[in-house]
Structure formats: C-alpha cells, structure tokens
Specification:
This is Acetate kinase. ATP binds at residues 14, 207-211, 282-284, 330-334. Pathway: Metabolic intermediate biosynthesis; acetyl-CoA biosynthesis; acetyl-CoA from acetate: step 1/2. Its main location: cytoplasm. The protein is of the alpha/beta class. The chain has 2 domains: 2-146, ATPase, nucleotide binding domain (Nucleotidyltransferase, domain 5, 2-Layer Sandwich), CATH 3.30.420.40; 196-379, Nucleotidyltransferase, domain 5. 38% of the residues lie in helices and 19% in strands. It contains 14 helices and 14 strands. Strands 5-4-3-2-1-6-8-7 form an 8-stranded mixed sheet, sandwiched between helices. Helix 11 (295-319) packs across helix 13 (336-343). The longest helix has 25 residues, at 295-319.
Amino acid sequence: MKILVINCGSSSLKYQLFNMDTEEVMVKGLVERIGIEGSRLVQKNNGDEFVIEEAMQDHTQAVGHVFDALIDSENGVIGSLDEIDAVGHRFVHGGEKMTKSALINDEVKEAINDAAKFAPLHNPANMMGLKACEELLPNVPNVAVFDTAFHQTMPEKTYLYGIDYKYYEQEGIRKYGFHGTSHNYITNRAAELLNKDINETNIISAHLGNGSSITAVKEGKSFDTTMGLTPLEGLVMGTRSGDLDPAVVTYIEEKDGVSPGEMNNILNKKSGVLGISGVSSDFRDLEEAAKEGNDRAQYALDIFTTRVKRYIAGYMAEIENTDAIVFTGGIGENSIELRKEIMTGFEQFGIKIDDEANNVRGDEHVISAEDSKVKVMVIATDEELMIARDTQNLVK
C-alpha cells in the first residue's frame, strides 16, 4: 500500500510518499510561497533534488504540482497516480468531537470547520489541501489525523480553565493540546525501547523546537500538556509568548490602542525568544549570540530552559512513577547544550545525564547516567509515519 501524507500550512505544503509494506519513505518534498510570488516545489529522493518554480495561486495548484513531481518521467517515483491508495492529512484542531483519526466524510468536515475558530490559520489551510486532493484524486480515500486527538484522554482537572464554567459548556473553551501526533509516536517508541507494556508506560515527552510543548503521559495516555486552547499557551517558544498574566494583554491593548487581532499577532509572531532577544527566533542564532556576549539572547535561553524545567518537574509529580524523560523535536534532538542545561538541577531527584552520552544529535539514544533513577532519552520524532500508519489502519 502506498500512502501520501500531506501537511498544509497557510502558504506551504509538506509531503511524503510511503510504501507501507516496508514503511519506507519513497520521496519527500516541500512547496513554499503558495499564493505568493516565487512559488517553489523542492522534492528530494535519495539525495537528489527536483525543483519546480512556477506560480501556484492556491493549494489546488500546489497539490497538482506535487502529483506532477511524483509521476515525473525522470524524477518521479511512481508511474501513475493510480498507485496512491490513500492520502493522510494533518489537521491541527479537532475540537472535542474528533478524539481520534478518522476517514473523512461530511460529518468529519463539519467538525473540522467547527474547530477552525480555535485554529483560524491552520484548519482552513488544512482543508484546502483536502479539497485539492478530493478534486484531483476523486476515488482515493482521505484520512484526517488530528494534533489534538492524543490529548483527548486528559481528565477535567488538567484541561479545564479557572474561568466561569459556562464558557466551557457554551463555547468549548478548554485546554486541547497540540503536537499530539509527535507525542503519540514518542510514547509508543519509548515503550518499545523501555520494553514496557504501553499501558504501564509513564513518560515526560518534551517536543522542543520553534514551537514547543511538553506532555505528561500516564499509563500510555496523555494526562496533561503545556499547550492549551491554541498552541500559544505553555513554554516560551520561537515567536510565541507562552504563559503570561492575562492582564498583560489588556494592559497593552488599552495603553497602545491595540486591537484583539493585533494583540493576537504580537503574542504569536513577535514574542517568545525573538521578542526577548531582539535577535532571532532560531535557537542556534541565540546560542551563538549568547556566546558573543549578547545578554538578551542569554535571557531568552535562560527563560526557555527555566520553563522547561518547571514543567518537567511538575509533570513528574502529576504522573508519579516516571519511567523516562524524552527529548524530541528540532531542539530536543539536536541541542546538546540546552538538554544539559534543562537537566541541571534534577540531580537532587537522582536524575543525571551522562555528558559523553549526551554528546549526540538525532536518532535514538539513552543520555542518562547508569545510576540515574529515571532514564533520559533522545528519540527523533516521526509525525508523518504516525499519520501514514493511522491512514493505513483506517483504510484497511
């Protein structure tokens, strides 16, 4: 079975084609600047790149070029689109209705559109990718895999907010959590590496990147997570503020005459480590600037690692018997220095990393010391493979 995985952003589209008989990635690609001058598709296959530079006004045209690239006589990997058995789509928000991945039908589409009020930048873009696939591959089943689904096992005590209960009852305002596909993959893989039944596996999954979230996994299920109603809550991130006193919002709106829409843009795109440092949202740039003596860059790194420590320690108390702390995502997998800084201080709980073991990037590694009471691990996440697996299971 060959499954195409599509992940649409507002002006971008990532894709991978899997041969699920072996779970091999046959090809992967990225389309950028959809609807913007300079549209470009780059497809990679065994180190070779195939580039299409043509105007792409919308996601339908972008998906059309993806299909052209897949069957290109010289650079493609399949002879015909008939070889694609199903398409798996990443959807950011499924609300309370979508508690697991689903074959897409009218009812599922309605739920996706209902949840779009909480993900106005993402769900509509995801829907555009779906519509394009339905038009261009009318007889191929489509599956929706939701970032929020893994977190639907959270209990009320971790997902409800301290506001009038009517806002939950009437508007569905609660913590939903995100990066669920990644945290789900990490949970399953950690259980395998720990040689434990997944229903007895308790881990802290730290997905750290430009967007970051931490999830407390109790008995193989999401128990608590840092992101909330939207991906804005929780850790300080690349451009997102993370947790802050709500009065900060109303103060800035009133003092500077900022509209709610403008405030939302400030908190999502002009805050985080970018706003603190004034340097960059890229943590590699911050580490370089800090080494050169830039105090604000160092503040940004310190604030980030402090928040991560706080959540890991708090979540360990919530799930009690922690089997492992797992780092994943671009930062979690690759930043040796930040992993070390985050775990500094946990020695008082008998948790220690081994500096030599920690000197690694990506793949799968145990980086804790032999006598550490809790294992500390690095596991490279694979959200696309999880989407492909869910798609295969539902189509079968």
